[in-house]
Amino acid sequence: LFSLKLSLHSNNIAGAAIKAAQEGIIGHCVTSWAVRISKPDLHALALAVEPVARANPNKSLAEIMDIAGKKIFGVESRDFVAAADMIAKSFAFVYSGHRFGSGVQWNSLKDSTFPPKGHALNSMKNWKNASTDDNYESIKTGVFDAEEPISKGLELMRKFEQKVATTRGRQIVKDWIISGQLQLDMNRIVQELFNAFESKSTRDTGEMIGEVKRLKQEFINWADTWMTPQCAKLNADIIFDHIAEGFPGCREDANEFAIIMN
Prior knowledge:
- The protein is mainly alpha-helical.
- It is built from ten helices and no strands.
- Helix 2 (about 45-55) packs across helix 3.
């Protein structure tokens, strides 16, 4: 929701571009990204890979990304790629789709509708009863294990920021730092949501609602730079409100909850 798998998308784009070059195809179209929530500028390096891959179909992905990265940042960009991939570590409630507890595509549709009441808690209950790899313990472990790589990625991205030699590159890195901070803060909120689900809360509900509201507003402030205000608010409501609702005693009254979250 806040980030994206840069190397994965770059590999897909490079593969399509190389195939187009080899087969003499005039061009190709990348779809789906238009309906995703993450900022388009986070894709900048992945999109820049296309013309480089088309012109250099015999080079490796790493070599192609090096060439594209040098054009964008004015410096060698492997630290940027490494940092971005760590920041984008996925975990429950920030990965869209019904299997991961997210409010985005909770019903597998790209329809921007709100998840039903109790969605976060019901997701965790369903994971408890699952017999597949997507069971409660594995999903919980994924949440708690994600904090370290996200933190390290954010630290590395901040170091890389000091090396960037272009205005455009600095703006892209700044967006990745915002993305990383949202990822890290949301991860810590979700960790506490699991603690609360197990009746092992380390922070009280009022404090956690305050944290969710703070992060929600920071997302809105960021999203306002590429979404309409209405769209930024709608997406923020879908991403954050069901998380807040998951903390003990939070949603006794639907109208009161709406007032609290807004």
